[in-house]
Amino acid sequence: MHFSLIAAFFVSVLPLALANGGFSLSCTDIQANLNANAPELSATCMRGNNSLPPTRSTVQLNSCLHNDDGFVKCGGSNFMSSCFYGPGCKLLNNAMGHPTVLQCSCMTNNGVLRASRVSFDLNECYGNVDGQLKC
């Protein structure tokens, strides 16, 4: 009885945990196409109950990120219109070795290119909802 209650708890909580950011914990083969016109994040993600095969999912980065005075932040849209300067943006590994850290050069509100590249972990904005990347 005790085991079944614990199992039921995890089965009911897992989809919520996957949806609240941290997509890299349940997704593999994470890639980014950082084309300035249509930047995308794609990954192969587990489904909520783990009994179904994982699915490949793609989400537009411009739909969930914005440039806040030279820093990439969650929410808003069209960050690449002001963050694709110089060598542009690239995807780096986070501390766990997952390629989720977006590093960019972005313009400030004054139209000046920020002197240093800023890093932003996409796990803060994106989650896995039943095999689909969502912001």
TrEMBL record:
Signal peptide segment: 1-19
InterPro entries the record matches: Cyanovirin-N, Cyanovirin-N_sf
This protein's UniProt keywords: Signal
Cyanovirin-N domain: residues covered: 22-135
One Pfam short name: CVNH
Name used for this protein in its record: Cyanovirin-N
